[in-house]
Amino acid sequence: MTIPYGLLIVYRRKAGAGEIASGLSTPTKLRRMSVAHKSNTLTQERLQELLHYDPETGVFTWRISRGRSVAGSRAGAINHHGYSQIQIDGVIYRAHNLAWLYVNGSFPTISLDHANCVKSDNRLDNLRVATNSQNGANYRVTRRNKSGYKGVTTLKRGYCAKIMVAGDLRYLGFFKSPIDAARAYDSAAVDAFGEYARGNFI
Predict the structure, then answer these.
(1) Which residues constitute the domain of residue 191?
(2) Per-position DSSP letters for 87-102, written without gaps between them
(3) Which of 18, 75, 156, 185 is the most exposed place for a label (fewest CB within 10 A)?
């Protein structure tokens, strides 16, 4: 089953006692349901009927009161991945996809990238369509990286620079200095990803 990028998941309470409000219930109280028949039902008109989106702040607010949500209050919650999500008509959507629908009239056909790497920053000028490869290129170095530099692996006798492009792992060379390896990654990232590249010194 193909699920569009705008759709996240549908949840209901185990006891069947109504739908959750604003996606704030804990996962232990929820069970996943099939969403194939609801995946394309949300329209720009319906979204704008329920919510107001400010493209300069990236914030959604409710136009009307619904359940626990009061008109004028901020909509949604931050999930454990760091994304803002909002429940509409029993379906939970990531807010950046709703922002795209709100402004452009349709969900993005491919993924959206947060240019500044802040997953909850849904200002319109921070959102851009991206392939999976471009999206994956725009991330900061992880804490698990012992070298301290993106694209650099620490070895016994030096440092290895490598980059993933469209699922293809490319080795860029071995270096005595982690800085030289990091610069090699940065150069390759710019060549491969252009404006989507997020390196160590760029």
Answers:
(1) 136-196
(2) EETTEEEEHHHHHHHH
(3) 156
Give the DSSP H or E segment for 186: helix 178-193
**Pair (111, 163) in one structural domain:** no
For residue 70, what is the domain's CATH number? Answer: 3.90.75
Q: What are the tens digits of pLDDT across the range 122-170?
A: 999 999 999 888 877 777 777 788 898 988 999 989 999 999 888 889 9
160 in the same domain as 69 = no
Q: Which residues of 29-47 are buried (b: 16+ CB within 10 A; e: fewer)?
A: ebeeeebeeebeebeeeeb
Buried b (16+ CB within 10 A) or exposed e, 132-171: eebbbbbeebeeeeebebbbbbeeeeebbbbbeeeeeeee
- The CA radius of gyration of the chain, in Å to the nearest whole number, is 20
Tens of pLDDT along 49-88? 999 999 999 999 999 998 888 999 999 999 999 999 999 9
